[in-house]
Amino acid sequence: MKIAISGKGGVGKTLISAGLAKGFADRGLKTIAIDADSSPNLGLTLGLSAEEARKITPISENKKLVDSKTNTGYSGVYRLTFSVDDIVRDYSMLTPFGVNMMVMGTVQSMGSGCMCAPNAVIRELLRYLIVERDEAVVLDMEAGVEHIGRGTASHVDVLLVVADSNLKALEIAKKIKDFAKTAGMKQIYLIANRVMNDLQKKAIIDFAEKNDLEILDFVPFDQGIIEKDMQGVSPLSFNELKAVKTIDAISENLLKKNKKFNKN
Ligand SMILES: Nc1ncnc2c1ncn2[C@@H]1O[C@H](COP(=O)(O)OP(=O)(O)O)[C@@H](O)[C@H]1O
Ligand SMILES: [Mg+2]
Prior knowledge:
By secondary structure, this protein is of the alpha/beta class. It has helices at about 15-25, 40-45, 50-55, 65-70, 85-90, 115-130, 150-155, 165-180, 200-210, 225-230, 240-255; strands at about 1-5, 30-35, 95, 100-105, 135-140, 160-165, 185-195, 215-220. The chain is built from eleven helices and eight strands. Adenosine-5'-diphosphate binds next to helix 1, strand 7 and helix 10. Magnesium ion binds next to helix 1.
């Protein structure tokens, strides 16, 4: 089961990514969660302490590692084929919820101030994790799916686009969905997060209908999430929170929709 989660900044991607990864691990799937946000904080939600999370260097910023994979000895020329299974082995870590995690750092857009070598490593890592490995992969992405690389994108089983009722978040969700379709992604769903009342719910439903977005579920606004995040503890340790319950139910639902992935 390979899932990518995308959407505007601040809409709840990290909470939902971590919650789904935990949900898969709780149901017996070997699961790896990938943090591809430019300000990575998935580790905290997966139960690491701030101190542990702070110690992690994103792969894209690990110059020595990137160099060891891509350096040819000629400036501006870098290797394109290299192994990455050892990177997954050496740089993923087991978090308290039983989910493995890797912090990628961001994939920069091609062109502007080329970050070719780190990009090449991250793209190959994503391809390897999504196309070749058979454990469940949950990808927490700040940016749209164009950063995954087209060849890999079509191997993602489910794209979840997260938005709240804010029109800007919904507009970005629509853009992400449109691109994902052209990249060959088949199961694309909207997750409405932080829904406070029926008015917000209706605004989201109306937008979704007009823009050909299929809503998978509504995650309620939950003050408890904000409080736990404020205290620096993972909200996911608190099963009684409404939002946490809903996200756990979504992981069950996704496994049902994709039966071939049940238990491995
Ligand atoms: N369902 C929810 N109810 C209340 N607060 C939420 C909910 N989902 C997320 N939040 C809060 O919104 C903020 C952004 O969430 P986060 O998962 O970090 O978003 P993103 O990864 O998209 O930037 C966090 O402070 C989090 O506590
Ligand atoms: Mg995030």
